[in-house]
Amino acid sequence: MAQGVMDKQQAGQAISSSTTPTKYVYFFGGGSADGNGRMKDTLGGKGAGLAEMTNAGLPVPPGFTIQTESCREYMRGKVSPNVDTEMHAALERLERLQGQKLGVGENPLLVSVRSGAKFSMPGMMDTILNLGLNDKAVEALALRSGNPRFAYDSYRRLIQMFGDVVLDVPKKKFEHIFDGVKAKAKVKFDYDLKPEALQAIIAEYKKLVKKETGKDFPQNPLDQLVAARDAVFRSWQNDRAKTYRRINHIDDWLGTAVNVQAMVFGNLGENSGTGVGFTRNPATGERVFFGEYLMNAQGEDVVSGVRTPMPISELEKAMPTVYDQLRTITWKMEKHYRDMQDFEFTIQDGKLYMLQTRNGKRTGLAAVRVAIDMVKEGLITQEEAIFRVEPNQLYDFLVPRLDEKGAKIDVLATGLPASPGAAVGQIVFTAEDAVKHHQKGDYPTIILVRGETTPEDIAGMEVAAGILTSRGGMTSHAAVVTRGMGKCCVAGAGDCVVDENKKELRVKGKTFKQGDWISLDGTTGRVIDGKLKTIAAQPDDPELVKFMKWVDPVRKLRIRANADVPRDAKMARTFGAEGIGLCRTEHMFFGEGRLEHVRAMILAHEESERRDALKKLLPMQRADFVGLFKAMESLPVTIRLLDPPLHEFLPQREELLVEIQHLEDTKPRSPKLKELRILLARVQDLHEVNPMLGLRGCRLGIAFPEITEMQARAIFEAAVSVQKNGGEPHLEIMVPLIGSIEEMRNQSAIIRRVAAQVFKEKGASVDYMVGTMIELPRAALTADQIAEEAEFFSFGTNDLTQTTYGISRDDINHFLPAYLKAGIFKHDPFATLDQAGVGALVKMATTKGRATRANLKVGICGEHGGDPESVKFCHKIGLNYVSCSPFRLLTARLAAAQAALEEKGDSGHSMK
Question: Tens digit of pLDDT for each residue in 98-118?
Answer without folding.
Answer: 999 999 999 999 999 999 999
